[in-house]
Amino acid sequence: MWKIDRRNIVITESFFNPQTIAVVGASKTPGKVGHAVFANLVQGGFKGRLVPVNPSGGDLMGFECVKDLGDFEGTVDLGVIVVPTHLVKEAVSSSLKAGAKAIVVITAGFKESGAEGAALEKEIADLCVSRGARLMGPNCVGIINTEHLINASFATGMMAQGGISVISQSGAICTTVLDWAEGRHLGLAKLISLGNKADLDENDFLEALADDEQTKVILGYLTSIKSGDKFIRVTESVSAKKPVVILRAGTSESGSRAAASHTGALAGGDISYRAAFKRAGVIRADTFEALLDYSKAFAMQPIPQGDRVAIITNAGGPGIMAADAVENAGMHVAVINKSTAASLKAKLPAAASVGNPIDVLGDADPDRYVMVLDAAQEDDSVDAIIILLAPQAMTSPAEVARAIAQALRGNKPVLASFMGGKEVMPGRDELAAFNLPDYPSPERAVAALKAMVDYNSWLVRPPRIVTRFPVNRHRVERIMGRYRRIRSKQISEVDAKEILRAYDFAVPAGRLATNLEQAIDIAEHAGYPVAIKIVSPDIVHKSDIGGVKLGLSNEDQLADAFDLMMLRIKRKAPDAGIKGVYVEKMVDRGLETIIGMSRDPHFGPMLMFGLGGVFVEVMKDVAFHLAPITADEALKMLEGTKSYDMLRGARGQKKVDPLAIASGLQRISQLVTDFPQIEELDINPFIVGPIGTEPMVADARITLGEAGKEDD
Amino acid sequence: MWKIDRRNIVITESFFNPQTIAVVGASKTPGKVGHAVFANLVQGGFKGRLVPVNPSGGDLMGFECVKDLGDFEGTVDLGVIVVPTHLVKEAVSSSLKAGAKAIVVITAGFKESGAEGAALEKEIADLCVSRGARLMGPNCVGIINTEHLINASFATGMMAQGGISVISQSGAICTTVLDWAEGRHLGLAKLISLGNKADLDENDFLEALADDEQTKVILGYLTSIKSGDKFIRVTESVSAKKPVVILRAGTSESGSRAAASHTGALAGGDISYRAAFKRAGVIRADTFEALLDYSKAFAMQPIPQGDRVAIITNAGGPGIMAADAVENAGMHVAVINKSTAASLKAKLPAAASVGNPIDVLGDADPDRYVMVLDAAQEDDSVDAIIILLAPQAMTSPAEVARAIAQALRGNKPVLASFMGGKEVMPGRDELAAFNLPDYPSPERAVAALKAMVDYNSWLVRPPRIVTRFPVNRHRVERIMGRYRRIRSKQISEVDAKEILRAYDFAVPAGRLATNLEQAIDIAEHAGYPVAIKIVSPDIVHKSDIGGVKLGLSNEDQLADAFDLMMLRIKRKAPDAGIKGVYVEKMVDRGLETIIGMSRDPHFGPMLMFGLGGVFVEVMKDVAFHLAPITADEALKMLEGTKSYDMLRGARGQKKVDPLAIASGLQRISQLVTDFPQIEELDINPFIVGPIGTEPMVADARITLGEAGKEDD
What we know:
The first copy, chain A, is of the alpha/beta class.
């Protein structure tokens, strides 16, 4: 059962569909924000009751001003606050008294202007929540809902109704999208300016919009995300119902975090956002135009079932551009069915090309366009259609637009690019009016289509079944408990391997020796060759002071190495407490890989895979995925590296079993999900042998985070 | 001295500035191309003499038709042919008789429709050239020159005058650019529809436009290039005078060529075009919008002297987008001078941000924009300026546009993005009118600026001085002569190394042995360890049949290997003629690199560099450059690989001397320039040791091309 979210109901009822709206700070002076907001509500055509609140009373645009909302006798649903900052708290308070469950604070001067503002903002948010109400803003443009003709914002004019809802953390982006939509004759559904997100944030509104019938696609502009975990959960569920297109700005600021592990160092910056968006099916727009372009396509056209694209054009050049773009995007220029081609050949002029791009020639009239469009819609080898028109002497763009718009069957997406400017503009206007998305260039139409194809791939992805491996969780808890007690964050290699062994990783046979006799004993038991490594809580970089010796082939070599190590350590780290020497069997040669995890501050555990050596260190050829991970996703991670060929036996390398590595990633996923105190984890190298053998943890490093002490 | 090109004069005089224009096929029937062309010439306002040629005579728009141009008494400069295909030759002939030096054939039905058409096209071109005239087309839209109000095309309407000249291989792109320019109130200079390029091609018109004062920037759309060598020579010289922006379409069709060498296999497709454009300073547009966006910036604004960008915005969101885009493009968000910041701080409202982006706030009036623009133009830490405007209640985009346009000093480029649609449109129109390039999104403004920054980098590049090394060219000629005589294209490893030795490469000591005693002798002379390789013109893949044996440490090993090789070869390739066994000293270990060359069918010798092993084979991490190459360019090639860190001592690798590799590339460059019959060349591995040692050619492969027999 889906748990009913109380916030959701407040948003749907009181923010989206209030019966009574009070504007506290409704001003009689044109040019003031308090005037603009009230005027917008009046001019927008709101059918419910409007209550202007102004201490001087009197009439405002035919409505009688209430001097103090405390004296108001009816019940307010939505209170819109536009008074000066120092009066906001009182205005909110009186709105709550009047029964408002929804508060929009448009006024600025809070968190964005310093500590004092932040404190006041928190007070106001707490006040709202404590009274069972919710707060939007402060410092926002307001809210618009075309469905009920509500324009509770200072953005000019009422938008036309349409399927695009907007959530934005920037007020200017709200007004820009509004202006863009108006300029392109596009309709919008809801427009939500998030402001400072003191209470309600993107997650709340995403949830509300998921169930909003008017909304066909959600367009989001975000610079930060309040709760990464929740964001993934919410968007994953929203994306299953409708597309969510987001531009995340501020990517260049983020910089890279200092991190001890490979995984941590490579995982910083924008990578976590990419991984989160991918997991959740969020369509990412990298530019402002892409944000608008993609949203328009989703709002107007059905989702394609595949990536085979038919291109219909009245000129060669634009057709080539579109074909280049389709291939560069990794989609396919459809191979038209033979019967379709034959029938087109019969109906089109001899000079026309019935290959794909289908060139209907410069003198194509609307009927010829429609005839080819019909054929492409019919043809089951075509998943999507791009229609191009270059201005030609004999062509009326407007007539072609009307004709093709009327021929749309809605069984596959059709996107258009009427190229040029003045002459094609009437055609572009017609396309917009008929819900046929039009783009100024073939490349942009193709990019929008690619976003749709990617969304479809996400929709039809295999069910996400995360395997739970039988593990010895209790054993890991005991080790963790020990580190918690000594308040140490750096887990020793020996313990890290113990932890991994408990999660069913193969670890080289080995044990701690406190003297040479024991060491020889262990080595004989494990089998030569062996490695020895100093074990001391006081020594972090073992190799640097001669605390690691590899490839010892027999008792003599072991004895020499042991004595030498003791001598050197005593000299170089005289104060270190030595627990002994760890003796372990050398791992057979194989393909060196790295698997690891770094906990992202926003989205949690980020898994990494890469081939070892130069592939990671020089080429940075790694793939990331958020935990928990499925077997399928883990395999896709491997395929996502450029060096994937190495797993398949490139360069005389023995072929390895990708499933063995995938299973390792899944078990790390389980471990770091079970133990959130693990901040970073590296298995480097994770040595993978030929098919049939088990990969080995040759070295491992686990670091605990601040959370370690409390969460366990 | 620059050689005066006869074509150039014909273009400048007779195509761009004819005194008398005859239209053969001028039709009285509206809707026909022959009518449209003549009408365009009349309506365009051409001041010279117009001669309509129509067999039925009579009046056409007030001009008396000449029935047969053969009877015309004056002299025609430009003949425009719009008669049916089968009458074209006669029409051209009569135009030539009337004195025309310039012929434009608009009529289609030639090369593009088959062999017959191609033959006719060639006849007509030959006819023109034989009479000292030049031919443009056939199968084109025509030519437009706003300078002299000539519209000799069937594209509707006369363009406004401006600085952008257009050369296009697609007629539809011509009309699209025209329509775009009109829609954005932009002026054009010349518009040239290349058509089938039977005679005049892009190179001819590029040369002519280079000296055309009206032309500030050349916008080109090309799908193919007629003479790659010449294209580089011409564009390099044109680019020094004015920017050339080209969209090359059809990149996805090209596919990869089958090639024997690494270099050849990796160098196919679009890489040669990228290398050619880079060499010649051509600004490459990857999309149609980029083509228009970049051209507009170049036509309107000065070239920046650096990449430090100031961003002026009236809203946070767009500012962040622009900053992201600047950093993603590899440019720098300028650090404003302290004095500038202090003075802005004093003049701007407290809430404004004087960091960069400089946020002038949502209520910014024109004066505030101008004040900040003035400061940014003044500040010597700023190379270029991006001005952003999001629609705001208090803002008049048109007034801001006028104010900033008037404040431009022209000392650094200023690009604008007025975001939105309907409300900002008046502002965008003003910007266009004032020659201030405006883009619908911050990202596109930044992309255009980046194109300008790159062009500037090319302009200020160090002088290209190609070093000529003292080499033994004669020795190579002798070896080449031998292969020419036996008509063999595959040069043996031994000879390839000889050739490289002649070009001053270090090659392992070695000689041919015809029996074991000789082999032992050579090995002792060269020093163990040695390698032995079978030498036979009949055996290409030596290793496959046991014809290569490496790392022989002493006489015994050598003797065993020699006898075994003879035994095996006799068994596996009984008919192969064996010349002996090549004995050479093993190369000391070092960093394995690959340097090579593959001759591109368009642009000639393409040099390649990559690190050996997985870097090339798995990661395809290679860099290309056209020969001849300078030392500086060779070093840049090395830096262009992701694995460059390996040269600088990553992963415990000894640091190597990049100059040693660069010198190898330069010497290959010289070799393949001296010997155009060399089709492919691979030095793989080219083993580079620590600084101070000389890189060694461990293996080499040279293949001759078809040209080999004639050119030598």
